[in-house]
Amino acid sequence: MNVAEVGESGLISRIAEIVNRNPDSASRKDVIFGIGDDAAAWYGDNSIQLATVDALRQGVHFELETTTWADLGWKSLAVNLSDIAAMGGIPRFALISLALPESTDIEDVVAFYEGMTELARKFDVTVIGGDTDRSPLIDACVTVLGRTKTREQPLLVRSSARVGDLIAVTGSLGAAAAGYKILTERLTFENNTAAALLSAFQRPFPRIIEGSILIENGVRTAIDVSDGLIADLERICRASRVGARIETSKIPISPEVRAGFNSSSLELALSGGEDYELLFTAGGSVIERVKNAISCPVTVIGEIITDANYNVAVIGQDGKPETNHRKGWEHFKSN
Amino acid sequence: MNVAEVGESGLISRIAEIVNRNPDSASRKDVIFGIGDDAAAWYGDNSIQLATVDALRQGVHFELETTTWADLGWKSLAVNLSDIAAMGGIPRFALISLALPESTDIEDVVAFYEGMTELARKFDVTVIGGDTDRSPLIDACVTVLGRTKTREQPLLVRSSARVGDLIAVTGSLGAAAAGYKILTERLTFENNTAAALLSAFQRPFPRIIEGSILIENGVRTAIDVSDGLIADLERICRASRVGARIETSKIPISPEVRAGFNSSSLELALSGGEDYELLFTAGGSVIERVKNAISCPVTVIGEIITDANYNVAVIGQDGKPETNHRKGWEHFKSN
Question: Do B113 and A19 touch (CB under 8 A)?
């Protein structure tokens, strides 16, 4: 059986089974979360330590026709910072393994690192190491290390959603996927709209500060929206062994997407992915506290329900479940 | 100018210049070594923390015709453990970003992780995270996190060689490069010889324990031999602003290489690379202490001298400098 047939989640389960066969090792005893959440977590001396790795690969995650080197540097760090945000952590250090064709202009590499450090500085992240290789295709593999404020601080995890929790999301959805459509389908839009959508796709802004606010106000369950709202909510459902019910009328579709994409705007928001917003669940009073404490919009889009199949039910305007939505992006599987 | 013209070391200098532009950040103040040594190092609460990243890329570092998936898993971890060894640290955690063609058999992925965890268990390293992607070519990007025993412990660095230091190396050299030659040139050897050379290439054994012994006995300068003895010694020279003089008659050429490769055995030992032995410098009395404390061979091959050009002089049997040796492997530059 090949990896396309098994799919990304099947592959990850199999990998986790192999690497977790040695539960008695001394280093393992410090581990809080290994494979399976947004980032790995383990006990440091005075704080919980976090680490995550994610690669942007030419031909898979990006093409040079639709990205600049500076944006690539920014985004390859941003997607990892977002994983630290989704744990409620503070990012500190980044390491980059960058593979480049031999013909790559040195100024392009400079632009890559300048884009990356522009974002790094916003969150006081230091690039401390890396590795460069030649390769026929560009490959930016970034590791980010982070930590919590204290050793006792809870984390935002995928597995703690409870039946009755409300489901909420920061910011708005669909803009990054719309930006991608503009680039790949060469759509024309009014300047400000195009700029906002392109920026959402090219320079996503990780919700680091918001992740900390969620933790401080009692939220314990979160994931970042990278592969699509439905796909990522399903991950919370599977990890927490619950179901979810969301209403299409409540989805905070980005205003530019709603204006520019009309009939497909809901689909972009539900399944487009790459929004890097935080999707979280908590009781109603916790969500109210978060709304008061946070500077970005927070929208309740549904609730956690009992479901032995851990499904996400999407309820349409007519109150009936819609089953025609793509879930989002999963590597190795056609969607 | 493209990266092939600048070369790997030129590229790394340029990258270091960009990422170090922000020396006042809070996270940076904890950094002991960023880009430029075998691993990054920073102050944790009770120990020094270490991190390193290195990728094995299909078509650049390996071909499926000459490696098994299990060996690839082992080696992609081993090269990173070796970087932690070369700092005198203890490895703890690994994260893997693995890119795979969609047609990859799931059992091959299982073999990869089994090879990796086989080595991980030997050093009590836990695989805590990762990421899988599809990609036309296999790419295993591994990050290893480690630490020192105490916060006060010195590190093995490249920049502390002093004129008058002896230059020494653990184990023997050339076997990995000879193993690679056997595979790529389909050479035939007596079984035991072939097995030893292939194993050196396919399953290098990182000198973690030896790195700790070096530190405990007063060594402060080391690098692991990954790109070739001359190339890696030059890195110590550049970082320490000294020169080196080594004698070909003293090089500990692997006995199997000496027996099987005769005229090219010295070249394999000097420039072949991938030995993952520790190359270090220290005063004579420190080296004597190391020899008594360590279970592997330690051979003095030369000494650190004054040289404004930071060159490595290779002295032949006749006492004269030889200038015909390849230096070793540098990405982006033809050697």
Answer: yes
